[in-house]
Amino acid sequence: MAKTPQPSIGKRIIDLLRDSNKTIVTAESCTGGLIAAALTDVPGASAALYGGFITYSNTAKARMIQVPQRLIHDYGAVSNQVARAMADGARNTARVDIAVSATGVAGPDGGSEKKPIGLVYVAVSTDLATVVIEHRFGDIGRDEVRKATVAAALDLVMQVLTSDED
User: Which of 21, 72, 116, 122 sits at a 20 to 30 Å CA gap from 138?
Assistant: First the structure.
């Protein structure tokens, strides 16, 4: 007997949001819109996906989603603090229920000893809290870092959405 394929994590997220009448927005730097693309791959995603901010430059982070320039200056664009501010800023700007953000060093350039290629911060913001997770994927190639970041971001969204079910 053939196994029924499991719905994608994107579909599960959209279904959960739609069923609870909630909306999500993305704020993406190193992924350049890939998180939003993973959600828009789901037919009917417009029922829950507000849209996304691609804030690749520091100026875009500040202007589009109100990330304080001081945080970027003090901690760098790739930091826990900026990931948190991106998620909170996107949620507040879009006036939605949940936001997911990602900022990191995808490579092949831009890494340093303190912030190596593969260092990524993913955050999810709700009205209850903002959760930030640091990932160190390593120098696995730009495309692979970006794919791993999308998977990590969707996984964190799913964890947040199902955390109150326990």
Answer: 72
Q: What is the pTM of this model?
A: 0.95
Tokens 């809290």, residue located? 129
Helix axes 58-65, 80-94, angle to 10 degrees: 40
Cα gap 113→152, rounded to integer Å: 23
Distance CA 100, CA 146 (A): 15
Q: Please spell the DSSP secondary structure of 38-89, one letter per residue.
A: HHHTSTTGGGTEEEEEE--SHHHHHHHH---HHHHHHH-SSSHHHHHHHHHH
Tokens of 92: 């507040």
Distance CA 44, CA 11 (A): 9
Strands across the sheet containing 49-54: 49-54, 24-28, 98-104, 119-125, 130-136
**How many residues are there in the chain?**
166
Distance, CA of 102 to CA of 86 (rounded, Å) = 8
Q: Could you tell me the two tokens for 104?
A: 């990191």
Question: What is the C-alpha to C-alpha distance for residues 105 and 28, in angstroms, rounded to an integer?
Answer: 12
- For 138-149, how does the pLDDT look when each residue is reduced to its tens digit (9 = 90+)? 999 999 999 999
- Cβ atoms of 154 and 38 within 8 Å: the answer is yes
